[in-house]
Amino acid sequence: MAPQSTNIWDYKPSWCQPWSIILTGIVITSASWLVLHILWITAGVAILITVWRVYF
Asked: What is the mean pLDDT of residues 4-32?
């Protein structure tokens, strides 16, 4: 019988891994800039994503 891992991330799906959450935030923020080219909207998106990450 294989030993159980004590790393919580081994039991999370790929969409819930830290790298995928960070990558998703970067992609959404970048897409906002590439599509709109409006700094204050992109900054707002980045702030909302950062607040969501800190809160959860």
From this structure: 91
DSSP, collapsed to helix, strand or coil, labels residue 3 as: coil
**With pLDDT > 90 as the criterion, what percentage of the chain qualifies?**
61
Q: Coil, helix or strand for 7?
A: coil
Rounded to two decimals, the pTM is 0.80
- With tokens 């992109």, the residue in question is 42
Tokens coding 36: 């709109």
Q: Would the CA dihedral through 31, 33, 34, 35 be positive or negative?
A: positive
Residue 47's φ and ψ, nearest 5 degrees, are: -65, -45
Gyration radius of the chain over CA positions:
16
